[in-house]
Description:
Helices cover 40% and strands 14% of the residues. The chain is α/β, with parallel strands linked by helices.
Amino acid sequence: xxxxHTSVMLDEAVDALDIKPNGxxxxxxxxxxxxxxxxxxxxxxxxxxxxxxxxxEAISAAxxxxxxxxCRVEIVRANFxxxxxxxxxxxxxxxxxxxxxxxxxxxxxxTAARGFSYVHDxxxxxxxxxxxxxxxxxxxxxxxxERLAKIFREYGEExxxxxxxxxxxxxxxxxPLQTTGELAGIIEQNVxxxxxxxxxxxxxxxxxxxxxxxxxxxxxxALQKAVARLKIxxxxxxxxxxxxxxxxxxxTFRLLAQGCICPKNFPVCVCNHRAQIKILGKAQTPSxxxxxxxxxAKSAKLRVVERIGGRE
Length: 312
């Protein structure tokens, strides 16, 4: 099927994984399989590529794209929070590397019917997994003003969260909001544009999407699960697209890279806590050439860690 998505920082992410030709690699956000295809092309027939995604359209597109790889390919419809169950079902105990490419795909944004974009008028949906019950329509029409303001503030970092929430409450008193166009129009009328001229609905749509899909709630736990599955020397690469994601990734890695956690006044270590990973350099950003070719890459950050200990 046609699944248009340009993979961001593809070479940098795949190079960072330091692919072992006979290794086992897990793509936790398969999408259109751009990164997965690049990983698979570096694997031999003895290698294994496992892809996880909760979007049926992504799964279908990935199956088509990865058909000709010589390595073993396993594609599973699942949330990346379920990676332990996925690996167990495939009898895979540990892996040589894992990749997370976070956020929404270009295909999801550009497919109007999915309801992710404030540019297209479509039903308020925003579900990455279309089998789940909660939709953007449920959030916008069902949450009270306090709860809406909270998610706009926490997940959208929106300065005018209270104003936006109040405007939505007023509008839905007449009739429930049904479309992205309605929501974007209400926000545009009541919330100032960003200092750089961006659409005033951008942060609100981000917040609703994160709430609908539970993106931040499961991220830290999933990263820890992925690290726990890495072999010593195995690597985890994570691409994030906004400060909330990057902050979660950075904090999780910092905790996993920490050694002794005893109070500073203890003369000797009694916690037996050992660092599980080492952080490989600072966050990387896309090249100027890439951001000129793909404006959606501008906010991307790539963080990479390597497993150094903690395995039994």
